[in-house]
Specification:
This protein has about 130 residues and is mainly α. It is built from five helices and no strands.
């Protein structure tokens, strides 16, 4: 769980740098790479043993689901400027399950853009997963 949050923080930094340089192509590629290669390919696969294992505790399963939903919710807000309609549609279904508290019927368009959180940056965990 720490790894995917650290990778998301790294993605945010790269995305914001690309926007500052007016490199919208690199910004789009950065978020695409995170979505498919990190979140979908790696993190979803790493969560399956926890979620499908009867030996996993309820707390472990809840924690994994919490991370899945909240990373997805943050990712949708990051993607929204590039893919406004589909992200809003998906976000409407995801946000009630997330930790983000919004009024019923709220739109992703008026939500805060994800911000880099120093506490979630973790070079050690990034290096550990890179080794794997």
């Amino acid at each position: 769980d720490r790894w995917i949050w650290a990778k998301f923080q790294q993605t945010l930094v790269e995305f914001e740098k690309a926007l500052e340089d007016y490199r919208f192509d690199i910004a789009a590629q950065t978020v695409y790479e995170f979505t498919w290669n990190q979140f979908c390919d790696w993190y979803l696969e790493l969560t399956k043993p926890v979620l499908s294992n009867d030996a996993s505790t309820d707390a472990e399963k809840r924690g994994t689901r919490h991370t899945l939903i909240n990373v997805l919710e943050s990712l949708l807000r990051l993607l929204h400027p590039l893919m406004p309609f589909i992200t809003d549609t998906i976000w409407q279904r995801v946000v009630p399950l997330s930790a983000l508290k919004v009024d019923a019927g709220a739109s992703i368009m008026v939500q805060a853009f994800p911000e880099v959180e120093a506490a979630k940056q973790d070079d050690n965990v990034l290096a550990d997963i890179e080794w794997v």
